[in-house]
């Protein structure tokens, strides 16, 4: 029995970058990254131990948030480094093949669609824009306290009463935020080649203060990145109280990687 | 521009850079789990949908506080979820073990008593064994004992 079995984990498909572009790069589990080239395409690959990445292990590991975070960050690290050197199509997390031979075969079979996406993404980056509405409901001083409940009021009723009050004071902030979203999307859409609206992020996951009400990715040409960022800053500076605009990136074009997205 | 790097003129005032390792985990997960091109690998997996992941995290983290506000704290009594409850559970278990050990010791000593003496006329096999033991017949087998008992 072969104990040390390895599989090929693919991070991205790109145009072959210049020599040494990925020297010293390590991916998932600290394994070194290498290129599998096939014509005008290259896959960014690292060997991963099968006992951590076979079907059963993956299913279990993906439920482990700590493992997931480590792999997600390693995956992102390699994708990011690649995209800084050459145009690249990021792959979904944990795309694993039995070996580099299979990777090469996939590059051949999928050449047309990778080629089309790479042409579309050439010279562009992804910028993430989020609009938040700060409703004040999460300030510590507003946090309901069990001992403050009037006598006779059940904790459940007290909770509902407080929620009602909070909701009323939040309506204004929501309306201001909705206007800001429209304004931002219009101005930023005009500066970008494509956009993808994402689901607003849950504050439990992002830990950002306030409620995320818009979460959109824009595909922006390199030459327009500065103008785009200036516009975000300007939108944020005149956003009314309780609302704000944030930008993240530049990202590898994750949100525009699938064929047919943002065409 | 002959820059090989798409975003060499790196924007400076950017709030959270996707490039840095400190990129917001939510942003990273959103992209690597939900975006990126999907091609069939040799290993079939079902990625946890970002929405499910969010729900899971929310259940794990956020609702604990909210539920406490509402006076729901059942998990504090559930040994599987609370170390405090587990400790309490352990104590109960220890007490039960202690009582059981006492009873076993009593049975072994041949005192086995309360069970046999609870006034039930129809003797169970255990009662019979107890009676045989009490009878003190060193050579008496269980079968003998039972016979005696039945006759008596």
TrEMBL record, chain A:
Query: What is the recorded name of this protein?
Result: GvpL/GvpF family gas vesicle protein
UniProt keyword Nucleotidyltransferase, yes or no = no
Subcellular location field: Gas vesicle
Source organism superkingdom? Bacteria
List the InterPro entries hit by this protein, alphabetically. GvpL/GvpF (IPR009430)
User: What PANTHER family is this protein classified in?
Assistant: PROTEIN GVPL 2
Question: Bias regions of kind Low complexity — which residues?
Answer: 146-156
Q: Which family does it belong to?
A: Belongs to the gas vesicle GvpF/GvpL family.
Segments for region (Disordered): 138-166
* Keywords, ordered alphabetically: Gas vesicle
UniProtKB/TrEMBL annotation, chain B:
Spell out the residue ranges making up region: Disordered.
1-21, 110-152
Q: Which InterPro entries match?
A: Gas-vesicle_GvpA-like, GvpA, GvpA-like_CS
What Pfam families does the entry give? Gas_vesicle
What residue spans carry the Gly residues bias annotation? Answer: 133-143
Keywords (A to Z) from UniProt: Gas vesicle
Where does it reside?
Answer: Gas vesicle
Similarity comment text for this entry: Belongs to the gas vesicle GvpA family.
Q: What is this protein called?
A: Gas vesicle protein
Q: Which organism is it from?
A: Streptomonospora nanhaiensis
